[in-house]
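Moderator note: this is an archived Q&A kept for reference. The question asked for a predicted structure of one protein chain; the sequence and the answer are reproduced below.
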Amino acid sequence: MKRKILIATSIATTIMFSGCATLFGGGGQQSITINSSTPMEGKLTYADGKGIQKNFTTPTTIIVERRSKDLKITSKNNDFEPVTVEKRMNSWVWGDILATSPLSTTTDAVSGAMWEYDENINLTEK
């Protein structure tokens, strides 16, 4: 009997301290695929200019940290207009809200899992 209570308590504690978006919604990282009709060189940054700065040539897939900031894709050779990839709330956060678990929501917010970006970006030549 004590073993069952210990197992149930362990499971409940794990769920309580882990956010739904962290567990089921991809965690704090996300892959983004960037495509174009012809190979183009660009740079991926957060819209505020702080954090990641990854150079790429299309087509490519880049792993980014999820944050409460939009992403900005700019051209290295002025081949395409800058693209802003807006963050949006990860739908798994509703699990935290429905469970009325402020601790889980905080976990998702701190880990970045609360946010997500479009998974496929298509660049258009100028």
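Archived answer notes: The CA atoms of residues 27 and 113 lie 5 Å apart.
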